[in-house]
Amino acid sequence: MPREIRFNAFDMNCVGHIQHGLWTHPRDRSSEYRDIHYWAQLARTLEAGLFDGIFFADVLGAYDVYGASVDAALRGAVQVPVNDPSLLISAMAAATRHLGFGITANLTYEAPYLFARRMSTLDHLTGGRIGWNIVTGYLDSAARAIGLDGQMAHDDRYDLAEEYMEVVYKLWEGSWEDDAVLCDRAGRIYADPAKVHAVHHQGRQYKVDAIHLAEPSPQRTPLLYQAGSSTRGRQFAGTHAECVFLNGQSKSGVKAIVTDIRGKAAATGRDPADLKMFVGATIVTGRTDAEAQEKYAEYARHVDPEAALVHAAASLGIDFAKYEMDAPIPTAQSQAIVSNIEALNRSAGPAWTKRTLLAQMPLGSRQAPMVGSAKTIADALIAWTEEADVDGFNLSRTVTPECFEDVIELVVPILQERGVYKTAYAEGTARQRMSGHARLPATHPAARYRVGASATSATGGAR
Fold this sequence. Notes:
By secondary structure, the protein is an alpha/beta fold. 37% of the residues lie in helices and 14% in strands. The chain has a single domain, classed as TIM Barrel. It has helices at residues 36-48, 71-76, 89-94, 112-126, 140-145, 154-174, 231-240, 251-267, 289-300, 305-316, 338-348, 354-359, 374-388, 402-417, 430-435, and strands spanning 6-12, 53-57, 100-106, 130-135, 181-184, 189-191, 199-202, 207-210, 223-226, 243-246, 276-281, 283-286, 370-373, 392-396. α4 (112-126) links the parallel β3 and β4 (130-135). It is globular. The termini are far apart.
């Protein structure tokens, strides 16, 4: 039986996201990001195309590695200005019934107690359609913005994340019992105090002694995304993630990462099939290959090479402004996105330059675009699922919203004809539609913090 292909729109609450410079295209509407009606209409469009969800990137801090300044980032709208994506969700959810919402939220700089309530609130308001992309950040500018000298080392951030996950699992899964809410008007009892338990957490980084303020939401724990594919990131994904977002230029490279993460999940006792793998994709399509190539050339004329380097400088931790176009660039490790550095070294070799880097960014990012007719694109997507063992695609915006409209109008019908794309939404929460589970399964580490599990005491207090 062919595997169902899943689509998320990959977007950000800002002007310039991944394909840098394309906001200058006359048909692009990303500069309307401050208008809630723009986002509501986009949500309706994606739901009409039966997208599983919209996956929001986010970043704290500005890209100031290039030239040791934010000036180039501001000129090119390189993910700045950027607004909070979580505040879009209620309006988009009100405009739809099925579309899921994945929010990137940096756990390093927010208390888990506050974050847990916000996600529970969104899970209630969306009817169980909320997901969390777990990130630990990579920008020194974000650390400085909240009063630190710089960010923690890469692996130390994952150690922090492990404890953070323990705290939010205790709040989401162990504070309120399933039948704690009575809503008994006659008896004047809304919630049974005996079934609401304080979380007592005393850890290295966090201390919590409180009940979770929100009653149990449809999913309790939001659908869990994770996007790190470094060695440490893969271990974290295998332990916690339900959906993994990968970037890669080759099917064989992505498949190796997928196999590794699924193996790490199995080693923890989880079912590897519970992890859905999404690879980043940029699609430029048309009714014919020639039409798609013409559109691609049109888009490419709006690319901003400096803006592309600004983003790359931040994600790699290298100030490209210091180097001439053909000067070799050292590949020393940084504390930025380690998997990006590893991927670049694999693709470009140990001696690469700004010129070779820009050659890999034809539309302003290192994500090589798929260009072709709807049939060509459908063939390519199916090949990815078969050869790289991925379940779906996070579709990066180019010229928005037409990039998503083109996929919906041209590519989706072909995928449906081939039996690899849904023709209607299944009912249920985001988790139920993704994996078939109403709640996180017993094999997931969150389950140990549920009331009645080993992590609760005889008096009901979640430890």
